[in-house]
Amino acid sequence: MSFPLKRRVYESLPLGLTRAVNLIPFSWIAGRAYREVMARHGAFETASREDVLAYQERTLGETLAFVTDQVPVYRSLRSAVERLKPLEALREFPVVDKSALQDDMRRYLPRDLEKIPHYEITTGGTSGNQLHLLVDDASQSVETAFVHRLWNRVGYTPRCRKATFRGVPFPNLRPGIYWQPNPIYNELQFSPFHMSESTLKLYVDELVRYDPSYFQGYPSGIDLLAKYVLRNDLTRLFKRVRAVMLGSEACSPAQAERIGQAFDARVFPTYGHAERLIISGPCEVSDVHHHTPDYGIVEIVAEDGSTCRSPGERGELVGTGLLNRSLPLVRYRTGDFATLAEFYCDCGRHWDRFTDIEGRWKQDMLEGRSGARMSIAALNMHGEIFSHVARYQYYQDAPGRCVLRVMTTPGFSEADEAAILEAYRAKVGDELDMSVEVVDDIPLTERGKLKLLERGPGV
């Protein structure tokens, strides 16, 4: 039975039957692929640098042999793969990006695709430009295992109770109830689509009743809850929360600080993407990201196309997958940027590491009156000027003009609006006419993510 069919069957079962899965060890529900990934966990935690590289050489060699035999766009590179060591041969491959796949996906599919059980997924598409991908049928189980290996660093096991804030379907919500149980993952799923000043008390009451050990989900949704908790001095209600595990969106330092303060717990951001080439997270003693070595090969590529070699060099994260044969991607540009760090860490792991990750959303640009382009990252604000703002979004429909849409919290005043506008004027001068529009809601994407920049027809 394919994974999409299994998911549909599970979602159609009565709640009483789905709750029975808690009687079965999660590793057996997740399947053999999950158990195989988990079985490698201990070895990589203590592996020497030499052992890590030896594993990657061997597995990458198998991957490159497969793609040069099976994938049309890579067949001309077979001689390089036969002549060079795998990590050296990898440098002979061209860097590819999302547009290359969209232009002609068939060139990147294996000849024997019909013999490989697979299904289709899409990227989040917060920019309005979704990418359709193929993944092996066991991909979800494999992905879950790698995520669980990361979360293990903050004490998480599948038996731990967690509250999640993600853009999953919520087909049967009733008035005043914005959550649903998901027994297979031992979690209560909270809708990020219904969070507002008028509903957040209901969220808090249900969270207190549910009493989770972990929060997990999108930074934008959990930050909204954190602001409410801090504003109403409710941190004491969440003493049993051990960590807040964030993913799928970039998390700003201000968000991380608020979330950690609100729940008095470690904030644990993870990095990954739908293409499933790189997965990373901090460790027990450092906030620097450790890339999991049996997931893929990570490179940081500088603007001139060279691979960064020395700690402190910065470039784009480029990944090569070791796990997915349905659409094996080699040297794929993620659109995200990071700074290379020394591979050794005091935690004892000898993995590739990077820091200062900037997600694709930070590359969104506003256009000034003179044609100047200003990144949203450069417009990031510090201090207290957003203390009475729950959520905000930039809207631009013409060069030189930008509306800041704000969902406000109690206490927002004309003085707050004036302070916000003054802070932006200090940064952008006459390049942008900024205005503030107070709105009741800023709709999230279909997956529950916040789209930070909305463009009108004029840009």
Write the layout of secondary structure elements.
Layout: H1 3-12, H2 15-19, H3 26-30, H4 32-39, H5 41-46, H6 49-70, H7 78-83, H8 86-90, H9 98-103, E1 118-122, E2 132-136, H10 139-151, E3 162-165, E4 179-182, E5 187-190, H11 200-210, E6 214-217, H12 219-231, E7 243-246, H13 253-263, E8 266-269, E9 280-281, E10 289-291, E11 296-301, E12 314-321, E13 332-341, E14 353-358, E15 365-367, E16 373-375, E17 389-398, E18 401-408, H14 414-428, E19 433-438, E20 453-455
Parallel strand pairs: 3-5, 3-6, 6-7, 7-8, 17-20, 18-19
Antiparallel strand pairs: 1-2, 4-5, 9-10, 10-14, 11-12, 12-13, 13-14, 15-16, 17-18
> Proportion of β residues?
15-25%
Q: What fraction, in percent, of the residue positions are helical?
A: 25-40%
Distance between the termini: 47 Å
Mean pLDDT: 88
CATH class of the largest domain: Alpha Beta
Uncertain residue segments: none
CA-based gyration radius: 23 Å
What is the CATH architecture annotation of the largest domain?
3-Layer(aba) Sandwich
Number of helices: 14
Record field, number of beta strands: 20
Total individual domains: 2
* Large-scale geometry: globular
What is the makeup of the main sheet? 6 strands, mixed
CATH topology category name of the largest domain: Rossmann fold
Strand order of the largest sheet: 4-5-3-6-7-8
Based on secondary structure, the structural category is alpha/beta
CATH superfamily of the largest domain: ANL, N-terminal domain
